[in-house]
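Quick log. Single chain, no ligands specified.
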Amino acid sequence: MDEFTADAFVNRDEPVPEVTISTGDDHASDVDDSPSRGHKVRKVLSSSKLKDKLHDVRDKHHEPSSSLQDRLFARLLQQIVPTEDMTDVLHTADKRSSKYINRPGFSLPLMTNNFRRFNARIGVVFVFQNRVERLLTWRVPAHTLSFLAVYTFVCIDPYILAILPVAVLLLFVMVPSFLARHPPPPTSLPTDTYSIRGPPLAPPPSIKPANEMSKDFFRNMRDLQNCMEDFSRVHDKMISIVAPPTNFSNEPLSSSIFLILFIFACSMFLVSNLLPWRAISLFAGWAATSLGHPTIQRAFLSAHQTHLRPRERQARGLLDSWVARDIVLDSAPEIREVEIFELQRRSSNNEWEAWIFSPSPYDPLSSGRISGDRPKGTRFFEDVQPPTGWEWSDKKWTLDLLSSEWVEDRMVTGVEVEMEGERWVFDILYEGAGIEALEHSKIKGKERKRDWEEGNGGSIKGRWKRRRWVRTVKRKPSTKKP
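-> predicted structure:
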């Protein structure tokens, strides 16, 4: 074996990577510290990451050959564009994430190839768009009147809608295809008739994508850029018109619009079956198509400049005065009451010592008490925080003097309620001092119609006591935009 064959064994003394699929979110890789010479390094990957790796390999295998510049730019974008793992950190449920969509990730060569294929085949959409524009702008009045005649028949008899797709297929697809295969004879005499007999004389028509260097390809690019510009303008205009009165930035105005729309929806729910929808559709279609005529457009613009624009400010003033007079909104924020329980425990020298401030009373029959868990909370009163999205409304906590009420509301058993003084609720140490004794007291309590005792000093107090503090909170304004 010559000296150049040594490269075949270059990895024989290095760790051999072994890929395993983990079911959970394993973040650390396990290393097998076996003393053998060929020890293995195990790299644990999640199933989703391995799936992304396989998709990348598949995409690289199927994508067309790309230039070095495209590959460098794609590598640069991979460093700039945030990965999908950031959504897991932020706990955002983005339904467009690759976690929910089984599609290839972003790739500049793949996107370039798809754009070329898309632009070569989008011409038929722009042709249809141009024909619709010509139809609605009355470029050929005979075509627009024919469209209105068909629309009138559909409005009078809506069952014709079931025939329209078949008629369109016959007249606009199959008949032109037949005429392409059976072209008329090359004659200029007007008296000659068209004969459909005989074998086909021409090949069948086929729709082919436009070549990348052809005029049609650049026309498609021109129309595509113009459509993107039109969509952006319409989108921004619609947002500027619809968003301010409906996003509750001006809450009285948005509330008025909501009230009007709600009343209209309820009214339509009741009387919609009584309206002549055929006549309404017929009138609306003719009116919308007539507005595309240049003469009617000029007349409407002139009437708007003469009669409507001078009165827009007056109409807006009437609407604002009605909103200010009849729409009353709640100015005060929502207020609720929160609670915290101060727990104290009896020490070995029979003295009570402050223990913790807990959101639960830690009563004798609570699940945490039975399972032997320690009470959860904070050691100091100042560390108690309001719930998320709320802030304190009062400056200090207030002691709940009606301890018997929250004991009865929670159906706490095996306790003694202090009716005066500091309103402590003590555990009662029954004979047996176990869960069976507390269950026995609960059964006996049904005969007494309550499961707690008033503090008379006669019972043996247990190890824990608690009392309830209350404080009001109000909703905190959110500065985060949705």
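Residues 1-47, 85-91, 434-449 have pLDDT under 50 and may be disordered.
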